[in-house]
Amino acid sequence: MSVKYYDEQKIFKLDSKDTSYVIKIFEGGYPLHLYYGSFIPDVNLTSFEKRHVYASFSAWPEGYEPYTFTPDTYPMEIGCNGGPDMRIASVQIRNADGNAVVDFRYDSHKIYKGKPALPGLPSLHANCDDECETLELCLKDSVTGAICTLIYTVFEKHSAMTRSMVIENASSKSFEIERAMSLCLDMNSMDYDLITLYGRHMQERDLERRPLAHGTQGIGSRRGSSSAAQNPFMALISRGGGEDNGEAYGFNLVYSSNYKGEIEVDYNESARVIMGINYDDFGWTLAPGERFYTPEAVLVYSDEGLGKMSRTFHRLYNDNLIRGEWKNKKRPLLVNNWEGTGMDFDGDKLFVIAKWAKETGIEMFVMDDGWFGKRDDDTSSLGDWQVNEEKLKGGIGSLVSRVKALGLKFGIWYEPEMISPDSNLYRAHPDWAIHVPGRKGSIGRHQYIIDMTRKDVRDYLFGEMSKVLGNNDIDYLKWDFNRNMTEAGSALLPAEKQKEFYHRYILGTYELMDRITSTYPHLLMENCSGGGGRYDPGMMYYSPQIWCSDNTDALSRVDIQFGSSLCYPASVQGAHVSASRRASYETKRNVAMWGSFGYELDPEKISEEARNEIKAQIADYHRHYDLIHYGDLYRIISPWDDPYRCAWEFVDENKSKALLTVLIKFRKESRNFFIRLKGLNADKNYRLEETGEIYSGALLMNAGLSLFDMPNADGYSKTFYFEEV
Ligand code: GLA
Q1: Which atom belonging to ligand 1 lies closest to the Cα atom of 530?
Q2: What is the pTM for the complete model shown?
Q3: How would you label 292-303 residue by residue, b for 16+ Cβ within 10 Å and e otherwise?
Q4: How many CA atoms are closer than 13 Å to the CA of 617, on its beta-carbon side?
Q5: Residues 311, 390: one domain?
Q6: What is the C-alpha separation between 338 and 457, in angstroms, rounded?
Q7: Do 282 and 364 lie in a common domain?
Q8: Same structural domain for residues 640 and 498?
Q9: Residues with C-beta less than 6 Å from any ligand 1 atom
Q10: pLDDT digits 0-9 by tens, 626-659
Q11: Active site residue 191
Q12: 512 and 367 housed in the same domain
């Protein structure tokens, strides 16, 4: 049993394979957070409760003995605004009287097997009820009549948890939710470093590490998407902790719009972590009887540093986030025409690429941007999702049939959430673009964003997309999103609900994605947002792979892949070889093989030698597919530790196969170079395929593989494949 309740002590204990999480209902119904970390037995759990309670100026609730208890210094499961708890609030409700005081106390609880879905929101799932157990902690505020239910699900085998919150209005008057954070976790100390993944277009998810400091620090987005600027991921790692040592707590929000992740270190040197919908420019009116569901946060704890934390995230997401037909099905090796042709193509040109793809052993052809309306550059036509027959003579059907006759799968690009000012759709429905009255809309990449809060807009998009997806044998859809959101307002929402816009927008987007994926269950969806601008678990729920970055230069792309691997598995990472960048095809392939692999080029623009090389290099991808997609990743040398060299390794579950990749980004003069492998079985022997040499697991992990004779050249890379003998 992963969730236990000890009635006498009023203690909830949530255990996974390696972790424990302890909640105590304190006198008066305060939900205290007692512990989260390595597994502990159920002995004397209340001892944690004892702590220093006095803090100068702290107020205690009426009815308590002076100086015996204050929510200001105790670790809480929820940070209520307006009462004695002075730390950053996780919930704030503006009630009908106009004040924003709230005080949630324990009312009841439920423990059950399995995991509930969150209406309208992406979330992790249980494959069978025995896989996880859920605690619903129901808290009430006696004055406003608000009911707040904290939902915790424990994934026993993965040492992971999710947490979300539901707020219900059980009163007779409406109130406004001003803040409803999915996660609120009070840590007993500030002795941690904060790790975040910052970035920009072409350089997503770079790692940043800083010691926690007094005050508030954190990440967030106000761009209408989770964004490339800060991924909705934070980790706390104990000072001095690293890849394989120290305690690491990972937090990831299953959400694709404006979010915030913050940590406040208070004067007691405890740290409160909150994460959820961004409360800036947010409000949600809840009428009597209504409920509001927050997205969920994923929590992973590791007692062996970042490496184990990442591997837990990877297994958890492969097993319990990715869904549908493509979950465990081998993803087709694809070629996409974007980097090869841009929008300058016609059906014959695309067919030439597809023919080459077939001869080369590629399995799917993807037609990118430029096939619809009058789209010859990025200044027009988004929204006019009708095929451009001047480019594709005979329509999409004709191209699809030709490509299919070759024996290839067919994929297509859309950017459904956008509308070009120069489009028939905008001319017919200017109010379908998001905007606010009296102001001109700002333009990004020559486009506006369409109002996904509106059902008529979503119905139009579904209808137009269905004409293409429903009438043609299409296997794959690339769903793009290419600008920040500004002047965020809807023509249909009343003034008092405009604060709900951002959240309603993403709920609308999720609804359309759900409609498309459930109507066309065979479709493989690949998400994209100028590369990896919506590389978040919310999107991964709908699309089992995401285009990781528009940066396909292997030597800098590898940094993005290292950063992404902090919490996202290789299986979701769209990674392609392109023609136009530095490095050999061998290196481009070795880097792109770390993901859902493909090519992005025009075969007529590369040499015959390059074409032959590509043909020869594909076999390895097929051979190592399972090892890479479902094996354990070990970051051996990370770009954030060494600017010259990097190395990564995949090991299968039985520890009988390992694939090591070493990349020299820049030549380094010191030539002694030992790579110590990880994750092998010390007692087994392994054969290095290339040389036939036998090594013990213990030798490879402790002494290491000597690479002194590896070519020491910028951009050189090599893979080493080991199999148990
Ligand atoms: C974005 C994507 C690219 C490509 C273009 C098309 O930038 O990231 O891969 O699809 O849009 O306009």
Answers
A1: 8
A2: 0.98
A3: bbbbbbbbbbbb
A4: 22
A5: no
A6: 28
A7: no
A8: no
A9: 338, 368-369, 413, 480, 482, 528, 530-531, 547, 550
A10: 999 999 999 999 999 999 999 999 999 999 999 9
A11: no
A12: yes
